[in-house]
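Handout, page 2. Input:
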Amino acid sequence: MPTLSPNILALLPEYILTIAGVIIMLAEPCLKPGASRKPLGWIAIFGTLLAGAASWFQLGYGTVHAFSGNIQTDAFSVFFHLLIAAVVLVTLLGSLDYFDGNATHAGEYFALALFGAVGMMLMTCSVELLMVFVGLEISSIATYIMAGFRKGQATASESSIKYFLLGSFATAFFLYGIALAFGATGSTSISAIAAGLGSTATPRLAFTALAMMLIGLGFKVSAAPFHVWTPDVYQGAPAPVVGLMSTAPKAAAFAVLLRITFSGFPTMQHRWSILIWILAALSMTVGNLGALLQRDVKRMLAYSSIAHAGYLLVAFTAFPIEAISSAAFYTAAYAAMNVGAFAVITQIGGFHETLRTLDDYRGLASHRPALAGVFAFFLLSLIGIPFTGGFFGKFYVFSAAIGSGHIWLAVIGLLNSGIACFYYLCLLAAVYSKPTAETESVASSAKITLPALAGLTIATVATLVLGILPGNTLWLAHYAGTATMIEDARHQCTAHPDNCHMQVRMEIR
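Output:
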């Protein structure tokens, strides 16, 4: 078997997704205007499966450097590649029948989902900030369009425009941060920035650069106070799109933030950890308090996602390896339960989203007991009940924070978890309460298809496995963190051997 070129091997999943997306775009005009676009959806599903297999294939090659060192495929990037592929797969399965009879442009939706995944995966394996920016733009443009995919509805147009305008503004912060980092260290390579921090004459400029990039990425992960777009965009965007944008782009953004902070600015951790501490506490508090006031379910889950971004930011205050492994595990757990929750909302609400408020969900269990049971399971996982992925996700994150001495931040997180129980249980109580005449007629019309059932099964099993058998995922997350830190240390020692600490040299050996 011929050996693959590093430039091909490093971006193999991205190549597969790009080819599948191009095939969909070329095939879509060949179909009759009224014909079903499901075959295009199956092409997207098959391409996503191949991309996931290619990511797993990359794991056997260790660390691969490509494109003059701008792309680095390692256990860290493979972990997030697999996670993004899984989220896109569940989303595609759940929305395969979503547009039938309601939209003639469903083919574009499937292609955009793949192109968005290309950008997200490119972000996770880029070790050069300009390449990260390219991946961020590819991902953002796709999600901007998908947010307004229910054409003709005012809330959809508002969602897309607001997401685009505020997203462009936040991207400008990130790009300005890259420019300042180049001015402070003379490079936009993450490893070169880390090596240049020890000799830079403008450390304040370097820290300002990091703060600017933190603002840009804070928007992508919906961290307070950069969260103002989230409730309106989630409310107006289609449910399957919300399930996708609330998990996969966040996973990619957190992966970039982990690389930038722990690999690019490790010597400034005593300074940027204070900023992360404040963002984490603020996001948890604002998100949970905001969710308490919501009656619209999608807006409630939007504020919930802000709170979960805060929980995940807690991990950044820990020691490097523990921070990376716990953050990676929490990202996987949150992706499984949140994409599953929105998959249920997609099935019971349909394209026109007939169930929107808490009152609309009353009595759902009496007519759709299976869907209600799965939805309840995801809500319990979002709370953090034992035997769910959400429990172990919070456990590892808070344990890592306590281990690094940030006890009060963990206490704030635990208090916020208690607040979150109220609005999650209010929604759960509505689902299992006595139905009304209106909810009875709407809920009974919901039908689940086999692809959607497969997607829900994947999300449910993943959430359950992460709650009772987290060992394999935690091992992969820990392996990703360890491999990343050692590889970064090797780069720094190679470039500046005089600044290489003895402990780092021992880790490399």
